[in-house]
Amino acid sequence: MTWTMGFVLILGILIKMITSPPSAAVAWVLKKYAIHQEINEKEITLEYDNHLIEGEFKEKIVAMYNEASFLKRIHIYPGNEHLFMPQNQNTVPYHICYSKGKKKIQLYLYIEEKHITVVKQTKKKVIAYHLDNEKLYTEYEENRLYLNSKIQ
Q: Which of 29, 43, 55, 152 is the most exposed place for a label (fewest CB within 10 A)?
């Protein structure tokens, strides 16, 4: 009888954990599989038009990326991935490169007036999505003037 009660108690705890997991477990799973993950400024390299960017401007671009909210995903059909890559675009993107575990991840940021278009490329797939960025755009424009004067 004691073994039966112990087994039922353990089974009840397992069912409870599966049907309503703790908040920390849910947050971990959502963070792990999120499309728009926050990046750390110290772990990335940021380039614009093949010029390495460091310092305060790098901090501002990373802050802009991290603070922007996810709007919508752009569906890329198999075979059309090459259309979203920087060599087929008219504008020059910011190129962010970093490693997460064994994966090498490259982000191409196309900063526009009302949103940021992000193309995220890993070894096997390409994902594109929009981020809302209206409130940070004016600060970006001021910094872009500063950056262009530094590059030239």
A: 152
CB burial of 93-125 (b: ≥16 within 10 Å; e: otherwise) equals bbbbebeeeeeebbbbbbbeeebbbbbbbeeee
Element (H, E) at 55: none
Q: At what angle do helices 56-67 and 134-151 cross, to 10 degrees?
A: 160
Please give the Cα distance from 96 to 39 (Å, whole number). 10
Q: pLDDT tens digits, residue range 28-85?
A: 888 888 888 888 888 889 888 888 888 888 888 888 888 887 888 888 777 777 777 6
The rounded radius of gyration (Å) of the Cα atoms in the chain is 21
98 and 105 in contact (C-beta within 8 Å)?
A: yes
